[in-house]
Design brief:
There is one protein chain. This protein has a single domain (8-89), classed as RelE-like (YaeB-like fold, 2-Layer Sandwich). Helices cover 24% and strands 26% of the residues. It is built from 2 helices and 4 strands; from the N terminus they run H-H-E-E-E-E. The chain has a 4-stranded antiparallel sheet with strand order 1-2-3-4, with helices on one face. The mean pLDDT is 96. Pfam families: HigB-like_toxin.
């Protein structure tokens, strides 16, 4: 289940359905990713074909990543059975 979203526009999209501040190209895939995160009970549940799920390394080793588009990723941490600190990042 989703407990917290860092990215302000992504949070507004999830809670209120507002799309302002999100790239229009991200909307469909963002919805799929957020729905999957909300249904997931472990990070590995996000290992969905096409999302390129992986754990990050070095100083971000406590976070996971799935592909949004191009270099952009939806990153998140995990606490018990909840996705937390969900963000959109280009960390490349």
């Amino acid at each position: 289940m989703i407990r917290s979203i860092r990215h302000k526009a992504l949070r507004a999209y999830w809670i209120e359905g507002r799309t302002r501040g999100l790239n229009a190209e991200w909307l469909t895939r963002s919805a799929v990713i957020l729905d999957a995160l909300d249904s997931a009970v472990s990070p590995e549940d996000m290992d969905i074909p096409g999302l390129r799920f992986h754990r990050l390394k070095r100083e971000m080793a406590d976070r996971f990543s799935v592909r949004l588009t191009g270099n952009w990723r939806v990153t998140f941490a995990w606490s018990e059975q909840d996705a937390i600190d969900i963000d959109i990042e280009d960390y490349h």
